[in-house]
Amino acid sequence: MPDDAAPPAVEAAGDVPVASGGGRLLWRDLPLGLRDELEAVAGGRVVQERSVSAGFSPGLASVLTFDDGSRLFVKAARTADEPVAANLHRAEAKVATRLPREVPAPRFAWGHGDGDWIALAFAVVDGHVPATPWDPDELDRVLATLVRLASVPGARAMRLPPTGPDFADMATGWRALRDDPDPRLAAVAPWAAAHLDALAEAERGALVACEGESFVHGDMRADNVLLTPEKVYVVDWPHASRGAAWLDLAMFLPSVVMQGVVDVCEPVTVSADPARRARGGAWAASTFAAHPLGGDVHPADLRSVVAGIAGYFLHSARKPAVPTIPRLRAFQRAQGVAALAWLEHLGL
């Protein structure tokens, strides 16, 4: 990518990017005919709306209250405007209808599509997205939920695709950065700039490292979690796959390092100095090793997956901005730096 077409390599000092895509569609923004169809499926008229800001996918994401007092969380996207979001909704519909009850996900109510628009409805979870920087108790609850999720049987019976092929296709960022050098990489990630060949080799092991039979959510972050006093719910399942039990833990921890844990781990973003990055990487390494899913993972497998995550985010962050998701590239860049802090601690 030419330098004049690329986004800046460094964010404003101290900024932790917000996991939000910006403006959401509201109920009134949907075509009248579509609103009538969705109300017919729901069996009532919408009388109140609360738009949900967390998450990146553009489109509608609202808790709707109907005239009989019932409520649903409804998300919708139009293929002509947001083909990626619409296709993700279609993929999630295929997963949500078949998830075992043991999976801690909101109950799927119905889906509706007319060829251009796709809408999904779920039972409302009266919970909250975890605070960031993370509260240690909330983080412990989510980490415990990953253990329960990994123990749910049936991923193969559900015919979920294996995680490895798609992850391996994604985990090519270091090879792309090596073959198409970015002179700004040294400012963002000096250790990576000095080890591109080793990083490109490490990410090649991701296909084998991902093998397993567990449910893999594939996009674990704070904005894909809802907490109630009794339960932790994991939302948004379009990337569901079948793989190693520890993969969601490995994919989740870089986002936690980026956002920080109160009184435990300071946020690690692009502006973090080497000492803070080192502390964040050490925290991720110790947390993974102490977790029930992480203790027996082969070091080479872990390095391959973390290398794949870091390379994917840092390579993706230099792509052109997405107008409807203005914060995406900054979030990817910061999460890539956080994953790299962990990888540097692990060594190559």
TrEMBL record:
It is an enzyme of class 2 (transferase). GO terms for molecular function: transferase activity. The keyword DNA repair does not apply. It comes from Cellulosimicrobium sp. ES-005. It holds the Pfam family APH. This is Aminoglycoside phosphotransferase family protein. Keywords: Transferase. Its EC number is 2.7.1.-. The keyword Transferase applies. Residues 67-261 form the Aminoglycoside phosphotransferase domain. Signal peptide: none annotated. Coiled coil: none annotated. It comes from the Bacteria.
